[in-house]
Amino acid sequence: MRIWASACLLLCLPASASAAGLFSAVHPTLACGDDAILRTLSDRTISTQQSPAWRRTLMRQGDCHNVTPDIRWEKIANRNGLPLMRRVPPVPGLPPLYFMTGEIAPIAPGPTVAVASEDRTPPRTPIAPPAPVAPMADTPTGPQHTEAEDSPPATPPVIVQPAETPRPTDIFFMTRGFQKLGSLILTLMLVCGTGWVMVLVLRATWRMARRRKAINICVELAQRHSPMLGRWYQNAHDTRPGSASHTSWGTYLDRFAHGTILPTLTRHGYNTLWPDIHKTVYGHITAMAARTANKPPATAIPPSTYHQDMNQAEYAAFCSQWIEKAGWEIHPPVATGLGSVIQCNRNNLKMLVHCWMDRKPVHDDVILQGIKEKTDCKASVGAIVSNAPYTQEALMLGKKHRIFLLHHEDIFKFVSGIEVPDVA
């Protein structure tokens, strides 16, 4: 018996507990899904100044409903000072609504007490029929109960509220990050590829410009020494009987390259390009030497008269004649890689004069050649004679190594002893 009493008590507890959280409207009122619109419609000062059409429009926008006291509600929240209520049982299509604070009140008695009070309500006095009619005897005089009322209430349907999909918090999804990252990677790849191609193009252009500059330097040196190269070419290709040359043209080219071209390229910083340009340079030198060798000899000019069309041998003979007139014993001029060398002696004083004829200013390569020849011959006095002016680098180099840089008009005065240094 105690077990059944406990079971009944447990069954009654949920019903009374659920009834404690139920509310109903105090009187027919208005409830809306938007709290701001509910406040506006409940303000009589604003409502009296507007038209009925305006009120209907606001009710439609705020999803407002007319609520009667017989509907039960459950409080789910309190937002902005207004209670948010949900209907019990839920009705499909009816969202939670806001009520004004004074328009809703909790239901005091539970469902069991309500049933008892309904039972204690005095029954309605039946209305007597006007006449005792037999067929009307079967008409019930009390409250009528239908089969639908006797059947247990149907289980209310479960309303699945459409839940808001939570917005992602990952920055990649919020800003379409993967798409932007892919675009960024593609852009970086294009920029890097374009930059690499531009670097390759600029590097190739720079190397081509350096090669062209180095070739021009070599061709200019070959033009300076064209008479010597022409003689070498003629000696290497001389096929007359009894004058067979024992030195090939390739040997002459290598001698000129190692003695003249490579030192000049090294001073200008182009020596690393020589393996790439030596074939082209050799072709230019060979063509130039062949043209010089096949050129008919010019009309001989007396050595005592200077002329700008002199070749290197004639210029050396012209200078040696003035040295000899000054009282020096001379040896015949010897052609070298750069100009001609005249060895002179006077009173056991040895002097070496390097003759160089050119239309352009004399560079330091000619000075270095004169210094080398003076050192090899162990001469006491060294001088370089030219028809052209000297560059600043050549002047500084000659002053450093005590090489006298002269013009051919000053050679007689110099060797006559006016400017001969004291070598005793």
SSE blueprint and pairings:
Elements: H1 2-20, E1 22-25, E2 29-31, H2 35-42, H3 44-48, H4 52-61, E3 65-67, E4 72-79, E5 82-88, E6 97-98, E7 104-106, H5 111-120, H6 147-150, H7 171-174, H8 177-224, H9 226-236, H10 249-268, H11 274-294, H12 312-325, E8 329-330, E9 334-335, E10 340-346, E11 349-356, H13 364-377, E12 381-386, H14 392-400, E13 404-407, H15 411-415
Parallel strand pairs: 11-12, 12-13
Antiparallel strand pairs: 1-4, 1-7, 2-3, 4-5, 5-6, 8-10, 9-10, 10-11
Biased composition (Pro residues): 123-133
Protein name: Restriction endonuclease
Region (Disordered): 115-156
Word description of this protein:
The structure is a single chain. The chain is α+β, with helices and mostly antiparallel strands and about 425 residues long. Helix content is about 50%, strand content about 15%. The protein has 15 helices and 13 strands. The chain has helices spanning about 1-20, 35-40, 45-50, 50-60, 110-120, 145-150, 170-175, 175-225, 225-235, 250-270, 275-295, 310-325, 365-375, 390-400, 410-415; strands at about 20-25, 30, 65, 70-80, 80-90, 95-100, 105, 330, 335, 340-345, 350-355, 380-385, 405. The strands form 3 sheets. Strands 8, 9, 10, 11, 12 and 13 form a 6-stranded mixed sheet that branches. It has a 5-stranded antiparallel sheet with strand order 6-5-4-1-7. It is rod-shaped and about 150 Å long.
Mean pLDDT: 77
C-alpha Rg (nearest Å) = 62 Å
* Estimated structural class: alpha+beta
Q: Helicity range of the residues?
A: 40-55%
Through-space gap between termini = 153 Å
Shape descriptor = rod-shaped
What percent of residues are in strands? Answer: 5-15%
Low-confidence stretches: 5-20, 111-121, 133-140, 298-302, 418-424
- What summary fits the major beta sheet? 6 strands, mixed
Number of helices: 15
Number of strands: 13
Order of helices and strands: HEEHHHEEEEEHHHHHHHHEEEEHEHEH
GO molecular function: endonuclease activity
Keywords: Endonuclease, Hydrolase, Membrane, Nuclease, Signal, Transmembrane, Transmembrane helix
Protein name: Restriction endonuclease
Biased composition (Pro residues): 123-133
